[in-house]
Amino acid sequence: MKRAAMNGFLVCCLMATASIASGIEYAADQLEKGNPGGAATSLKSFDQKGVKGAGKEISVDVWVKDVPEALITAGFWLSYDTSKVNIVKIDVYDGTAQPGPWDNAMSRVVANPGGPGAYMVIVGNLGTVKPDKKGDIIIARVQCSCRDTCTNPMEIKPIQGFDTVVGGNGKVFDTVIKPAAFTIHGK
Question: Is the predicted pLDDT of residue 118 greater than 70, yes or no?
Answer without folding.
Answer: yes
